């Protein structure tokens, strides 16, 4: 992709997994097949995800997160000292199990399917890296620019520190965070060396800090840690992100924020505009904010008025959870709304979130996902003709 191309089309990360890949994933987790055998199976799924994206007109592609159980729990195989636990298992450590089960039902969260990596000992990276194997395979199979999403340091710290399980190794989240940042810095350097163009730090639970009520403090994209003052939490997140990326040049960093992507029931997902988050997001030393913006739950676009052009924006213009394929003309109109505050050179186009954030709870099928990406690419072509 030329550096002069306006409105680059990219993805947030995950693609819908085929049933045969889910079966292979389950068999690997059960110890019935080796990691090597699983990866041979997953290679085919990654190649299909790449082709879907390229054929749709995506400029910066991902591997579809095909080897991952979900967008953050896959690190349990890449970081020692963590245990893979289902939410249903974590119920045993909850102070009020009955209330937690009711919360999960109300939020349409499948406790059996959502899994978290919990720190139960001192954590250490492995030589294989967190997403380095994914990045190398992706780099070898596309000529386009590539994006690799990895869990952000705040998300990974908050979701893996669990009272009663983590506190023997790490009495506080802050102590765990130091090791998480060290691991992620090493990973970012390795991804840069592997030819990755864009590293996306996933921090979806930031919106839960602002808009989650007491019922949702135990779940929103794995925000299982104890809740404190929102300003303190956001300051903590800014510090961790900035420590992670400090001094790593020559690669684009973005931070992805959404309001949850585990259910098609929009009423169980968080709502609220980016206004309360923007002062903190602008303090993060990253090039781009990759934002959910295609759903009314993301709020009005005018909140960006004070922050225009301070960063690039990865504008969510397609809802991954619907059957409707967004019309390119409607996407163009949406982009023109944000053009009031951002120059064309600052705007990337993407879906709101991935199409398969949780492997066993994909929110769409591959054909609909493909057509949504096609519409985004068509809209980008229309915009380029007008603004080049």
Provide a descriptive summary of the structure in words:
The protein is α/β, with parallel strands linked by helices. The chain contains twelve helices and nine strands. Strand 6, helix 10 and strand 7 form a beta-alpha-beta unit. Residues 214-222 have low confidence and may be disordered.
Give a brief outline of the structure.
The protein has 388 residues and is an alpha/beta fold. The protein has helices spanning 19-29, 35-56, 87-90, 97-106, 132-140, 153-160, 173-193, 206-211, 230-245, 278-281, 328-338, 366-387; strands spanning 60-61, 79-86, 115-125, 145-151, 198-202, 252-257, 288-291, 312-316, 347-350.
Give the overall shape, derived from the CA principal axes: globular
- CATH fold annotation: TIM Barrel
**Level-2 CATH architecture:** Alpha-Beta Barrel
Q: What's the CATH C level? A: Alpha Beta
Measured on Cα atoms, how large is the radius of gyration? Answer: 19 Å
Described by its quaternary structure, the protein is single chain
Q: Could you tell me the mean pLDDT?
A: 89
What fraction, in percent, of the residue positions are helical? Answer: 25-40%
Question: Which descriptors apply to this entry?
Answer:
388 residues; alpha/beta; TIM Barrel; globular
């Amino acid at each position: 992709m030329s550096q002069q191309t306006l409105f680059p089309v990219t993805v947030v990360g995950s693609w819908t997994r085929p049933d045969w890949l889910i079966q292979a994933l389950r068999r690997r987790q059960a110890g019935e097949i080796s990691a090597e055998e699983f990866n041979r199976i997953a290679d085919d799924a990654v190649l299909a995800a790449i082709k879907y994206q390229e054929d749709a007109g995506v400029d910066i592609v991902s591997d579809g997160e095909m080897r991952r159980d979900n967008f953050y729990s896959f690190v349990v195989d890449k970081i020692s000292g963590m245990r893979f636990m289902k939410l249903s298992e974590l119920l045993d450590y909850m102070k009020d199990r009955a209330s937690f089960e009711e919360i999960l039902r109300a939020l349409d969260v499948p406790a059996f399917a959502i899994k978290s990596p919990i720190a139960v000992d001192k954590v250490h990276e492995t030589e294989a890296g967190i997403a380095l194997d994914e990045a190398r395979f992706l780099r070898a199979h596309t000529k386009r620019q590539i994006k690799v999403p990895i869990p952000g340091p705040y998300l990974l710290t908050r979701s893996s520190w669990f009272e009663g399980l983590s506190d023997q190794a790490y009495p506080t989240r802050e102590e765990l965070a130091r090791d998480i940042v060290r691991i992620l810095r090493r990973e970012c350097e390795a991804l840069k060396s592997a030819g990755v163009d864009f590293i996306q730090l996933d921090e979806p639970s930031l919106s839960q800090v602002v808009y989650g009520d007491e019922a949702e403090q135990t779940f929103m994209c794995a925000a299982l840690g104890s809740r404190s003052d929102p300003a303190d939490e956001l300051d903590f997140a800014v510090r961790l992100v900035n420590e992670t990326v400090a001094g790593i040049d020559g690669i684009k960093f973005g931070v992805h924020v959404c309001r949850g992507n585990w259910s098609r029931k929009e009423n169980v997902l968080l709502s609220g505009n980016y206004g309360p988050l923007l002062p903190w997001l602008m303090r993060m030393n990253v090039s781009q904010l990759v934002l959910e913006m295609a759903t009314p739950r993301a709020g009005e676009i005018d909140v960006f008025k004070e922050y225009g052009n301070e960063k690039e924006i990865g504008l969510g213009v397609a809802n991954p959870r619907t059957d409707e394929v967004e019309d390119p003309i409607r996407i163009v109109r949406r982009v023109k709304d944000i053009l009031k505050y951002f120059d064309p050179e600052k705007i990337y186009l993407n879906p709101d979130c991935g199409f398969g954030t949780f492997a066993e709870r994909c929110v769409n099928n591959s054909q609909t996902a493909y057509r949504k990406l096609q519409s985004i690419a068509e809209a980008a072509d229309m915009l380029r003709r007008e603004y080049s």
